[in-house]
Amino acid sequence: MYQIQRVSHIALADFAKDVIRSLGAPEDRARTTAEVLVAADMRGISSHGVAGGTGLTELVARTRAGAIDIGAVPEIHGRPGWAVASMNAKGGLGPSAAMEAAHLAGDLAGQYGVGRVHVYDANHFGAACVYVEALLERGLAARCTSTSGAWMIPYGGNRVRLGTTPIAWGMRCGDEAVVIDMATTQRSVSPAFRSAKAGEPIPRDYFRDRDGNMLEGVVSPDRLVEGSVLPLGGEQFGYKGSGLNILIELDNVAGGGSLERIPSMRETPFCRVSHVFEAWRIDFLFPEEEARRRLEAAVKDIRSCGGPGMLLPGEREARRKADAERHGIPYEHSQWETLRRISEQTGIIAPRPIAR
User: Fold this and answer.
1) Cβ atoms 329, 6 nearer than 8 A
2) Hey, what domains does the chain have and what are their CATH numbers?
3) DSSP designation for 76
4) pTM (whole model) above 0.85
5) 2 Cβ partners below 8 Å, 6+ apart?
6) Based on the number of CB atoms within 10 Å of its own CB, is 57 exposed (0-12), middle (13-18) or buried (19 or more)?
């Protein structure tokens, strides 16, 4: 059996940056995009990592197809005295535009107590929690949402219209960041496809086929492509996830997002999405030191209700990140093969596994 091998997060970021630069991206935007992809890998969110489904393979293919304007520089619009701004991402690199928007929301929060930035005409931005954590590092609380390509039938509906539409939300409590990052569907789409391609079963209450029948067990990727993922809450309580999904989309519409169904990548590489970034100070009622003590006390009380197996939101990812920093990011055979193919396509030398 093929053993998992580890790769240096520094070497992986340099490789990703060089690949993106080879496509014509400016140095700073290539570097930010690479760091966001690697940040996902370090947290175990491999679907949004360098070798994931929304990583370098997609980025290279979509750029060469003209679906990503690799040299685009986002345009920011704001009003004097307003804590809200908008960004036209101009179809450029998704992660670099998103990180710029997140920090703009942080700047507005520093000035007004709260900041909010809407991004439109954007591309996929990877793992939402990465942007929230960047703002938590600045001492702020933060939240972000994004629209996505259509994969879901609205609860009670009869055709695919909504995306997986993620939301991430976090606060720093003492030495740890409490961050949730989730789709508003039962799960994201990529785990189902990984299972289907590997001949492994998918759970019930996750996907329907094109005729509305619940899929379960081992299914073919073709049946997934033609089907739809269920909303968070599943067959019986999916009105909750569907409702949250719709409100997130409407919030994005207010900031320039699409009014109509967004085609998914399975339909076209020309897929534009939108995001919203929010940041706020925590010292609006209590002095900052007291506010932080209160948060720590609340976390301590929550932990008192669980055993060693209970994890707070983001705790598993934080542990993986710490392990990746010490020992390298664990990559399985298929991920190493993806790096090899990207290297062949671009001429950029892929990193080697860490010697053990």
Assistant:
1) yes
2) 1-71+327-356 (1.10.1530.10), 74-186+230-313 (3.30.1370.60)
3) E
4) yes
5) 332, 333
6) middle
How far apart (Å, rounded) are the C-alpha atoms in residues 180 and 146? Answer: 14
Residues 239 and 156: their CA atoms lie apart, in Å, by 8
Residue 2, pLDDT score: 55
CB neighbour class for 27 (10 Å; exposed up to 12, middle 13-18, buried from 19): exposed
With contact defined as beta carbons under 8 Å apart, do 273 and 146 qualify?
A: yes
User: Sheet of 75-78: strands edge to edge?
Assistant: 75-78, 84-88, 114-122, 273-280, 141-146, 167-173, 176-182
Instruction: For residue 19, give the nearest of 92, 70, 90, 94 by alpha carbon.
Output: 70
Q: Is-contact 122 94, C-beta < 8 A?
A: yes
Q: Which residue has the tokens 């940041």?
A: 279
Which pLDDT value is given to residue 60? 96
Contact 338, 51 (CB under 8 A): yes
Chunked into runs of 10 residues, the chain (356 residues) has average pLDDT values of 84 98 97 98 95 93 96 96 98 98 98 98 97 98 98 95 97 94 94 88 93 92 93 96 98 97 92 97 97 96 91 96 97 95 96 90
Contact 279, 142 (CB under 8 A): yes
Q: Give pLDDT tens digits for 263-298.
A: 998 899 999 999 999 999 999 999 999 999 999 999
Say how far apart CA 255 and CA 105 lie, in whole Å: 14
Angle at alpha carbon of residue 125, lines to 124 and 128, rounded to 5° = 125
C-alpha dihedral over 326, 331, 335, 338, to 10 degrees? Answer: 40
Q: End-to-end distance of the chain based on CA atoms, in angstroms?
A: 18
pLDDT tens readout for residues 308-355: 889 999 999 999 999 999 999 999 999 999 999 999 999 999 999 998
CA gap 138, 132 in Å, rounded: 10
Distance from C-alpha of 145 to C-alpha of 169, rounded to nearest angstrom: 9
Burial letters for 41-51: b for 16+ Cβ neighbours within 10 Å, e otherwise? bbbbbbbbbbb
User: At 317, which amino acid appears?
Assistant: E
